[in-house]
Design brief:
The chain has 149 residues and is α/β, with parallel strands linked by helices. The protein contains 3 helices and 7 strands; from the N terminus they run E-E-E-H-E-E-H-H-E-E. Helix 1 (46-68) crosses helix 2 (110-126).
């Protein structure tokens, strides 16, 4: 069994509306509660970081799957959306929606287009962040595949 350890240091100097700092190696940033939740909105926040973790894990997993299948990709882009719900003061991360757009070279076959759609679904289930939040946060997927003209 192989293990990888990742570390983060945090400094939070005050109460709810303070601005803190995190350092996780290459990720160094200020953190605070977002403006949408009546915070100062400085730096990033847990909501953006969870969305970022889920989105980057998904797109990297999909890219690796496409590469392994030797599917000729012109571009792979994505927009992701996180939905946080507040009910009676209880904050819940409700849903993350990934909207990947895969553009394939003209030489692609219809079979490859179908395979990309299948891989897009499989990537969501294979991503370690998706697996980590499974059962707690719903993951939606809106895949767009096109062949260059």
């Amino acid at each position: 069994m192989e293990e990888h350890h990742f570390h983060l240091k945090a400094n939070w100097p005050g109460g709810r509306n303070s601005v803190g700092v995190i350092d996780a190696g290459k990720l160094k940033t200020e953190i605070s509660i977002p403006i949408e939740m009546d915070g100062p909105g400085v730096g990033t926040n847990p909501d953006e970081m969870l969305l970022g973790a889920a989105a980057t894990c998904y797109i990297i997993t999909l890219a690796a799957m496409l590469e392994r299948r030797q599917i000729p990709v012109v571009s792979l882009t994505q927009e992701s959306e996180g939905i946080v719900e507040v009910i009676k003061g209880v904050i819940t991360y409700k849903k993350i929606i990934h909207r990947p757009k895969v553009v394939l070279y003209k030489v692609c076959t219809n079979e490859q287009v179908v395979k990309v759609e299948q891989l897009a679904e499989r990537a969501e289930k294979s991503c370690m962040i998706s697996r980590a939040i499974q059962g707690n946060v719903e993951i939606g997927l809106e895949v767009h595949v096109e062949v260059e003209k």
